[in-house]
Design goal:
It catalyses: 6-phospho-D-gluconate = 2-dehydro-3-deoxy-6-phospho-D-gluconate + H2O. The protein is globular, with a radius of gyration of 24 Å. The strands form 3 sheets. It has an 8-stranded mixed β-sheet. A 4-stranded parallel β-sheet has the order 2-1-3-4, sandwiched between helices. Strands 5-6 form a two-stranded antiparallel ribbon. Helix 4 links the parallel strand 1 and strand 2. With about 600 residues, the protein is α/β, with parallel strands linked by helices. The chain has 3 domains: about 350 residues, no CATH class; about 30 residues, no CATH class; about 180 residues, Glucose Oxidase, domain 1, CATH 3.50.30.80. It is about 40% helix and about 15% strand.
């Protein structure tokens, strides 16, 4: 199956750029694989500690070192709706492993914070940092060297990227990601957005807003809008780390449990003790990463993945750049419209054909690499299916439908919603950033207006409440980068900016912070690097400077003479208030050594 020449060109570029680091990585993985089943290197005392809590039959199996043992890394907690279903998964996986002649143990838990809870709060400053903490916590769990494969239980924003980094760091182990699925649909997304804007304008009170939010987020499962959490799940299927068709099955259903059981059996089948050994570090390659980026563009996915995909790829020795992501966006049409890019949620997306139909259309258009390795031992065509509950309670699969179940939600490859993915890199005298325009009306792709300067999202909100944000303007919200305060999401800006845009003002946002997969109709240049704390050009903008954001040309400029810009002193800001409280003092070293946004904005360097 031939691949579009533009996709092939970017893939070759990534392969060539990555050769030195990829070869070092693969040598390390293969050396670990050659050592064989790893419990054999443990002393009797080591091994006795490792299975002391197991039942008699599991102890007997592990003592002989002849059966595969699955290490479960879980992000379960019962405060997060998306992760609450994982409470029962370890018992299900252990039971299925025993029935298949193997063993499974929870190797460790990782933290899982909710960006929905921490939006606009101090805790959000730990959100991006948590990705690297999750990777390190998973590594601690797997470091006991007791395991022949790993199953990762995680869903949301930083959890899955952190778990992928951990999985690739233990690249000699086969790895399977098991999702929990989205909650059933609640309050329609357009009504939720309307209630938020009414609250921002002071037209309804907190009680009414809380009632609307509670009707939106109402049960176990992932939030149903297409933000980072659901973009994560899409990526895991596109990269062959989920069982086919597993991504958007609701929690608490027989099919959801059947898919979890199937994943446990498959994890046992692909260890080095069998005939289908699939070390994840060899399985995931440059083509797999490109397929993930293509899926992101085709679905209008989260801007956060311009950070996460870069970091995830580097964990496997693969050097992915924003230019690669932007060039792939130009080659990939938008095939899905899911809120905030439309009124439909992920349940509507799944009902219209979901991942199976999407993948079938991408294959038809030659926009993905079919010949990748996946956990099921077949290429990406194995994922152009729909999973169903079989009569015996297991999983059966049928080919994806030939037609979209709702062409307003998923379009066929020959009738895309727009010709590109809408996630572009911006470059200019203000540095480098990214913008997502899949939900931005074409007439707002270019904004030129005077700058209004803010050093926090709360300052902008205060100005909005005071009624001082009049006329056209570009809001410059700076000192929000990874080295300043951990690069929190600034999603609290969305309602206020949305109100102003709806009033007819031409506005845009420029920031060295994040906006997430929930960013929508307001043009926003985000992740601008170098960040303000490092003296980046964003720190040289002054109130009233004309700023031009051009998403069509891919430029981000302050319209002043180059010599004047170079001569200006960068603004400074007292950031000491970001250093303590809510645990922030524990992460000073993370902030001090964080990489720039275009290198993943994390502590971990590969």
């Amino acid at each position: 199956m031939s691949v579009d020449s533009r996709i092939a060109t970017v893939t070759r570029r990534i392969i060539e750029r990555s050769k030195p680091s990829r070869e070092v990585y693969l040598d390390r993985v293969r050396a670990a694989v050659e050592k064989g089943p790893h419990r054999s290197v443990l002393s009797c005392g080591n091994l006795a500690h490792g299975f002391a809590a197991c039942g008699v039959s599991d102890k007997a199996r592990l003592a002989g070192d002849a059966v595969p043992n699955i290490g479960i890394i879980t992000a379960y907690n019962d405060m997060l709706s998306a992760h609450q279903p994982f409470e029962t998964y370890p018992a299900i996986i252990r039971e299925e492993a025993r029935a298949a002649g193997g063993v499974a143990q929870v190797a460790g838990g990782v933290p899982a914070m909710c960006d929905g809870v921490t939006q606009g709060q101090t805790g959000m400053e730990l959100s991006l940092i948590s990705r690297d903490v999750i990777a390190m916590a998973a590594a601690i769990g797997l470091s006991h060297n007791m395991f022949d494969a790993a199953i990762y239980l995680g869903v949301c924003d930083k959890i899955v990227p952190g778990l992928v980094i951990a999985a690739l760091s233990f690249g000699h182990l086969p790895s399977i990601f098991v999702p929990a699925g989205p909650m059933p649909s609640g309050l329609p997304n357009d009504e939720k957005a309307r209630q938020r804007q009414l609250y921002a304008e002071g037209k309804i009170g907190r009680a009414e807003l809380l009632e609307a939010e509670s009707k939106s987020y109402h049960s176990p499962g992932t939030c149903t809008f297409y933000g980072t959490a659901n973009s994560n799940q899409m990526l895991m299927e596109m990269m062959g780390l989920h069982m086919p068709g597993a991504t958007f099955i609701n929690p608490g259903t027989p099919l959801r449990e059947a898919l979890t059981r199937e994943a446990a059996r498959r994890a046992l089948a692909i260890t080095a003790l069998g005939n289908e050994a699939t070390p994840v570090g060899e399985m995931i390659d440059e083509r797999s990463v490109v397929n993930g980026v293509v899926g992101l563009h085709a679905t209008g996915g989260s801007t956060n993945h311009t950070l996460h995909l870069v970091a995830m790829a580097r964990a496997a020795g693969i050097i992915l750049t924003w230019q690669d992501i932007s060039d792939l966006s130009d080659a990939v049409p938008l095939l899905a419209r899911v809120y905030p890019n439309s009124l439909a949620d992920v349940n509507h997306f799944h009902a219209a054909g979901g991942m199976g139909y999407l993948i079938s259309q991408l294959l038809k258009g030659g926009l993905v690499h079919e010949d990748v390795r996946t956990i099921v031992g077949q290429g990406l065509s194995a994922y152009a299916v729909e999973a169903k509950l079989a009569d015996d309670g297991g999983v059966t699969r049928v080919p994806s439908p030939a037609e979209s179940g709702d062409a307003k939600v998923i379009s066929p490859i020959d009738r895309p919603f727009q010709p590109n993915g809408g996630l572009k890199m911006l470059k200019g005298n203000l540095g480098t950033g990214v913008i997502k325009i899949s939900a931005v009306k074409p007439e707002r792709h270019v904004i030129e207006a005077p700058a209004r300067i803010f050093h926090s999202q709360h300052d902008l909100q205060d100005a909005f409440k005071a009624g001082s944000l009049t006329g056209d303007f570009v809001a410059v919200v700076r000192f929000q980068g990874p080295r300043t305060n951990g690069m929190p999401e600034l999603h609290k800006l969305t309602p206020a900016l949305g109100v102003l845009q709806d009033r007819g003002q031409r506005i845009a946002l420029v920031t060295d912070g994040r906006m997430s997969g929930a960013s929508g109709k307001v043009p926003a240049a985000i992740h601008v690097t170098p960040e303000a704390l490092d003296g980046g050009p964003i720190a040289k903008i002054r109130e009233g400077d004309m700023v031009r954001l051009d998403a069509e040309a891919g430029t981000l400029e302050v319209l002043i003479d180059a010599e004047e810009l170079a001569a200006r002193d960068a603004a400074t800001c007292d950031v000491s208030h970001y250093e303590t409280g809510m645990g922030r003092e524990l992460f000073a070293q993370f902030r001090a050594t964080a990489a720039p946004a275009d290198q993943g904005a994390g502590l971990l360097v590969f």
